[in-house]
DNA sequence: AAAAAAATTATACTACTGGTATAAAAATCA
DNA sequence: TGATTTTTATACCAGTAGTATAATTTTTTT
């Protein structure tokens, strides 16, 4: 993305934090970021689209920071989860993301509302998978309930805690307290077997492509990484690394992946690697074919 | 209030429910309720003031319905509490009050924001007193925490439950589930002695006059009722009933209670009643004097 | 360095908003 | 009936989001 465009988004974000979204006029953004109206409408077709660009960046930043903490760690460790939530909460606070989302949810713009909805569901889905890590498969019927209630408890605690302590906010305290509560609630509902939401609701809410894309991304990543590390032949290493990178990039990042090119490259590679990495090659083949079948 | 004015508020409420507050222009309200702009601004100085008038009515309706359920009942009965919350939730749903409040909280209108804040704190205060009834004095250090979390849990459960079940919303199920959770949380925090909010925060948040007014209202009511029923002298009954009603009305409903008038009437009465209702007369005297000291 | 292309600016414009002002008409009251 | 209040219709103001366009500046290509 253009540097100037990014700068405009940053300046607008600053204004949204200070005055709120509604109260910030486009003229304010123009003055504050020193661009003309024409340029603004060259970058964004509306104030709402600027907002979406901002939200995408904030979400991305959040996911990044959050996932960084988990790599190579024990997923069932509650402390890791607490750290992740702390990071999330701190970023929310810094970016005033929650009040921005709440405000903007009433903008009557379908795209924005959908975007926020998907964002919240993704958080729910993340919590669901993390709770599954932490509490184990046997608690599954109650995990969606607890994920939902956790967002509510954390949100309300943070809201009133902020109101009570103005600037000296001990995020860790609020997060730990809220996590303690949900741990206890999980025990409680598992024992009394009370259930409010059917577990399959989450899958029903989240459009398939969102889920599928994520799963696909992880699968292709795993398979290609395995294949890369399996190449012993140093003579051909450069060639096949290039091939694998090409396939990965084409499938994950290209707007219209070139089917025949990908399949051709794959078949070239299959000839040589098939005997040594049978399992992974097969997995990759399945991934590629199902990918093109879908689209 | 004028019937026509009430009608305008109703029509506006209808529009707010359908389109939201921001999205409803004053012109919409004029067209929908069939009045002219001049009349509108004769009734309300702005759209925001119309909103405040609406919110006042809705809050009043809610308090009424809620308190009706408690009279003559056992305050520690959890079932009564559940009924009260159900009524509250049903009215919220019917009036779309929650989303209206959330939307309007970003209106940058100080008065509205303050009004909503006070409203929420009053709900919290109500929950606090009800939890005190139900869970007992010994749980007091944790009652504010639980009141806060209860609002969060109920809110989030209702939100996702509505999303999942569209129109077939079983309010009772959501309320009962949420109440079960808070009962368990209360046990949990009382046992682990974890506390997030200091109990005195609520008193600190709610401006004194709000609390004091309520307390004062109840005290004066109690004292005067006791005095009324204590009058045995049928000859003087009419006279003293008139006196007591006057004092009560003057202190509770007059904009500027006439101090000397009230004190004079009270002293007239004191002469005759002092021996028979010593205690109550004294209590009333204290109430009157502290009342005028304050203002 | 020159030419072409793209980005940016300033400005004027439309249609709408909330809110003000006012004179005429209608309803209410004494 | 006559006076007073309420209501209406209308024109008006300043501010909003967004469009259109011609002129200018910057970047890219040759």
UniProtKB/TrEMBL annotation, chains A, B:
PROSITE patterns: HTH_TETR_1, HTH_TETR_2. The keyword DNA-binding applies. The keyword Repressor applies. Residues 2-62 form the HTH tetR-type domain. Gene3D superfamilies: Tetracycline Repressor, domain 2. It comes from the Bacteria. PANTHER family: ACREF/ENVCD OPERON REPRESSOR-RELATED, TRANSCRIPTIONAL REGULATOR, TETR FAMILY. This is TetR/AcrR family transcriptional regulator. It comes from Perspicuibacillus lycopersici.
């Amino acid at each position: 993305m253009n540097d100037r465009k990014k700068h405009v988004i940053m300046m607008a974000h600053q204004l949204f934090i200070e005055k709120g979204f509604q109260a910030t006029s486009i003229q304010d953004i123009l003055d504050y970021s020193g661009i003309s109206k024409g340029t603004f409408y060259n970058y964004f077709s509306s104030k709402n689209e600027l907002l979406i660009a901002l939200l995408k960046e904030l979400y991305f930043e959040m996911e990044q920071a959050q996932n960084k903490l988990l790599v190579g760690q024990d997923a069932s460790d509650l402390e890791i989860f607490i750290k992740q939530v702390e990071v999330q909460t701190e970023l929310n606070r810094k970016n005033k993301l929650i009040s921005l989302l709440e405000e903007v949810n009433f903008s009557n713009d379908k795209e924005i509302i959908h975007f926020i909805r998907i964002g919240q569901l993704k958080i729910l889905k993340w919590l669901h998978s993390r709770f599954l890590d932490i509490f184990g498969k046997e608690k599954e019927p109650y995990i969606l309930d607890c994920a939902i209630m956790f967002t509510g408890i954390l949100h309300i605690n943070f809201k009133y805690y902020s109101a009570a302590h103005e600037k000296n906010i001990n995020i860790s305290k609020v997060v730990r307290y809220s996590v303690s509560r949900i741990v206890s609630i999980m025990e409680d509902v598992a024992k009394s077997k009370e259930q409010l939401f059917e577990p399959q609701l989450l899958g029903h809410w989240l459009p398939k492509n969102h889920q599928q894309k994520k799963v696909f991304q992880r699968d292709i990543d795993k398979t290609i990484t395995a294949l890369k590390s399996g190449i012993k032949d140093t003579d051909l290493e450069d060639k096949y690394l290039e091939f694998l990178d090409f396939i990965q990039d084409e499938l994950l990042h290209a707007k219209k992946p070139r089917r025949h090119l990908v399949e051709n490259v794959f078949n070239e590679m299959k000839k040589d690697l098939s005997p040594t990495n049978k399992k992974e090659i097969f997995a990759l083949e399945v991934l590629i074919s199902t990918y093109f079948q879908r689209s």
